[in-house]
Write a structure and sequence with these properties.
Strand order of the largest sheet: 7-3-5-6-8
Oligomer: single chain
Number of helices: 4
Largest sheet: 5 strands, antiparallel
Number of strands: 10
Shape: globular
Number of domains: 2
Mean pLDDT: 84
Distance between the termini: 53 Å
Order of helices and strands: EEEHHEEEEEHHEE
Strand content: 15-25%
CATH superfamily of the largest domain: Medium-chain alcohol dehydrogenases, catalytic domain
CATH architecture of the largest domain: Alpha-Beta Complex
């Protein structure tokens, strides 16, 4: 499926870089689906600190990218697979997915539909809701990569997490628990996350940091 779909969608897009006033609801064509891409019917989109940076032209300048307007923002989101390209093997129509179309020239998740590379999507696990999955994509991958890839965290090791009330931090606490770490700290509470404590460890809800 490589042809441009003869349908349009509502999207929040910008026609120039700038402040929040540049965001406008527009009627745009649904992007064409490439051979290795997936068309997602968007049901929830994440909002992160990187979105204003992209809206203001920060990423375009940093990576020397020539922007193509109108530009649809939205670096992470979730939805249901509407169609797949002929080379896509991992997904089918109706699958619940979430992902990161970071700097995707075809636009992001601030739209009714988004086209995303197969490699940038994953199935939504278990009973996670669409909003939960949409908020997880960037923050959860960042937290997990920091613990696993960067630190190489192992069962039984001690860990102190700074900023554990933030988007990435509160996920890092929960990942650390699952990985068997000890001493993940959230605010003024010590959370023992070793194997013996796993069954008794409650979810630690993020709280605002004191001034």
């Amino acid at each position: 499926m490589t042809q441009t779909l003869s349908k349009t969608m509502k999207a929040v897009a910008i026609d120039r870089f700038g402040g929040i006033e540049t965001l406008e609801t527009q009627q745009l064509p649904i992007p064409a689906v490439g051979a290795d891409e997936v068309l997602v019917h968007v049901e929830a989109a994440g909002v992160g600190v990187w979105d204003p940076f992209e809206r203001e032209g920060g990423f375009a300048k940093e990576f020397n990218i020539k922007p193509v307007f109108p530009l649809v923002l939205g670096s992470d989101g979730a939805g249901t697979v509407e169609a797949v390209g002929p080379q896509v093997k991992r997904f089918k129509k109706g699958d619940r997915v979430y992902g990161i179309p970071f700097l995707n020239p075809k636009g992001g998740f601030y739209a009714q539909y988004a086209v995303v590379k197969e490699t940038s999507l994953a199935l939504i696990p278990g009973k996670l809701t669409m909003p939960q999955a949409a908020a997880m994509a960037v923050d959860a991958v960042t937290a997990l990569a920091g613990l696993d890839t960067t630190l190489g965290l192992k069962d039984g090791e001690s860990l102190l997490i700074f900023g554990a009330s933030g988007g990435i931090g509160h996920l890092a606490v929960q990942f650390a628990k699952r990985m068997g770490a000890l001493g993940a700290r959230h605010q003024d509470r010590w959370v023992r996350t070793g194997a013996r404590q796993r069954a008794r460890l409650p979810y630690v809800h993020p709280q605002p940091c004191p001034n």
